């Protein structure tokens, strides 16, 4: 398969990249890293990305930052930045990418445990992750040409066995599931 990974230089990306590279053709993208430059907080940048990479079978997003801290410290900028970077970033890849993906292709987004099981001081993360979960469930019903979509929703990745992280992404990329929120480390 030809797979685009956005955020391959990050913590999760560094787990995925070497294993996916063993079996698939991988193209990586990030703001300052990877084969191609993209800033997923910009819809125009996402559009340029898909004009550049063609014939993709899978898109995996392991990028998108949000503020962590007590609700008393949350600002409008934190809300906007979390929504722009993570929610609009990850979902924008689907909104644009659906028109470019090969038949039977897949999207794998990465929200996180805070969307379903929030811990204190994570309101913005909970907001962003919950929005992505809802989007994935709904988008799976609408995507055409056999295109699938799933969310991998990890807890703290540093304390999850790397093989579990890999299995979750492989389940989405290489399996047949669609509309699943794949939970790990809960
Ligand atoms: N790590 C965890 O424990 C954990 C748990 C649950 C959920 N998650 C979620 O999983 C995703 C990845 O987490 P991570 O810990 O691997 O992140 P990370 O270590 O901070 O790495 C983020 C990666 O994404 C790229 N990136 C960041 N913002 C971008 C943007 N606007 N456009 C394009 N690329 C961008 C970065 O590369 P450049 O700097 O080159 O852009 C980097 O490769 C995040 O959405 C995070 O919230 C992480």
Automatic annotation (TrEMBL):
<dbReference type="InterPro" id="IPR002347">
    <property type="entry name" value="SDR_fam"/>
</dbReference>
<dbReference type="GO" id="GO:0016491">
    <property type="term" value="F:oxidoreductase activity"/>
</dbReference>
<dbReference type="InterPro" id="IPR036291">
    <property type="entry name" value="NAD(P)-bd_dom_sf"/>
</dbReference>
<dbReference type="Pfam" id="PF13561">
    <property type="entry name" value="adh_short_C2"/>
</dbReference>
<dbReference type="InterPro" id="IPR051122">
    <property type="entry name" value="SDR_DHRS6-like"/>
</dbReference>
<protein>
    <submittedName>
        <fullName>Short chain dehydrogenase</fullName>
    </submittedName>
</protein>
<keyword id="KW-0560">Oxidoreductase</keyword>
<comment type="similarity">
    <text>Belongs to the short-chain dehydrogenases/reductases (SDR) family.</text>
</comment>
